[in-house]
Amino acid sequence: MARTVGSNGARTAEAIRQAGVKLIYRHGYEAMSLRQLAAEVGLQSGSLYKYFDNKQSLLFDIVRDHMEDLQARVDEALAGCTTPTERLRAYVGFHLRYHMTRMAHVFIANMEIRSLEEAHRAEVVAMRRRYEGLLEEILRAGVAEGVFKVTEPRVSTYAIISMLTGICMWYRPEGRLSQDELVIIYTDLVTGGVAAGVLPTAAAPRQLKRA
Amino acid sequence: MARTVGSNGARTAEAIRQAGVKLIYRHGYEAMSLRQLAAEVGLQSGSLYKYFDNKQSLLFDIVRDHMEDLQARVDEALAGCTTPTERLRAYVGFHLRYHMTRMAHVFIANMEIRSLEEAHRAEVVAMRRRYEGLLEEILRAGVAEGVFKVTEPRVSTYAIISMLTGICMWYRPEGRLSQDELVIIYTDLVTGGVAAGVLPTAAAPRQLKRA
DNA sequence: TCAAAAAAAGAACGTTCGATTGTTTCTGCA
DNA sequence: TGCAGAAACAATCGAACGTTCTTTTTTTGA
């Protein structure tokens, strides 16, 4: 046997990509063997090398494409929004829905950064910084307008992103709550946390100072 | 050469444990080879088996011990606190400080659960559930007393835990902000997010309903 | 003092890994 | 219809993996 009847390069490439996402999500990049991947697609392991240079570049392609998609879509989602409050709600809603819909890709992009070799990792980290920078700018704009109270926009950005991204650690589509309901719950948490002038700070008596 | 001069079992066991945490933290469990670990400690790889049954049980020991330590300390931290607000602040502060101080252990316990074989994973997940359950109970108590407004304590628990735990993705001891300052920032975010009756919900017009 | 116990070396095992190569079969276009 | 190129197989490589076993050296305690 050699070339399989009905085989098609483009279709196989897509199948490999999808199986790669699935197996890396399930087992982790290191733990996924190329023989396992080949079997999932219905190939011999050697045949995979028609479709990528090596295992590392498969991972990088998956992560890079995901990050590009994420950035393109968040730009769309924020397009119509102007006020910081609007933009914050749009960002939070988008982030949550995207992460609930594409859990595997997101999980890989977050967990397997360590498995990327240095040059690739640097590229991905830069893309992530850009995506997260959007939120930081929204917070800063809100502070400037006086609608948010955030002493450290950078830290709050990290905190909020972590909170939102964490949803793909437990969300299941068949779960009790719908995506809409979850978006509302999380949005309330976030907007409440950054809202201006509603609560005394935890630092009420003492002053924020350097260590 | 065989037994090394000055060698001591207890000391070696501790060195292996520490090196294991360090290497798993840095490279991941799958990516860490036992030869690498042995070299770090100054042994031959075969000699490691005096100290554990296999690679898997090394990971499990590290994670289990960490979870037990975490639970014991949070119980201490909450000991004197009675009101939901007090207990929430104590929980948040404890969680952050613990995670900033023992980043490697925490990271391993969160990231390498997938590398645990089924029985071990189940045990660890149960321990985590118990730890997180503490926060959920605090939120429910606050709702019952009317000091918190949380429609879904379970979801909010996940959200808050994710936010807090995320700190060990970027915190560096030599960073600009002290642990105390960070605790204040995060505590404000959390308490603001769950505070009762200060903000209209994102669901203001429509009603929360099942999907 | 000397034998038992402890600690580690070191060699080897079978397996699996990512990757390479040469060959065979199928497809699509001129 | 025939052939160039695409697609996949099959066999294999060397390296690295976790693990086991035997041997050697050091320490310890009666």
TrEMBL record, chains A, B:
Q: Quick check: keyword GTP-binding in the entry?
A: no
Q: What is this protein called?
A: TetR family transcriptional regulator
Q: Cross-referenced PROSITE patterns, in alphabetical order?
A: HTH_TETR_1 (PS01081), HTH_TETR_2 (PS50977)
Named from the GO MF annotations, one term is:
transcription cis-regulatory region binding
Note whether ATP-binding occurs among the keywords. no
Task: Note the InterPro entries from the entry.
Answer: DNA-bd_HTH_TetR-type_CS, Homeodomain-like_sf, HTH-type_TetR-like_transc_reg, HTH_TetR, KstR2_TetR_C, Tet_transcr_reg_TetR-rel_C_sf
Organism source for this protein?
Azorhizobium oxalatiphilum
Q: What is the lineage of its organism?
A: Bacteria, Pseudomonadati, Pseudomonadota, Alphaproteobacteria, Hyphomicrobiales
Q: Where is the HTH tetR-type domain?
A: 10-70
Keyword terms of this UniProt record: DNA-binding, Repressor, Transcription, Transcription regulation
DNA-binding region residue numbers: 33-52
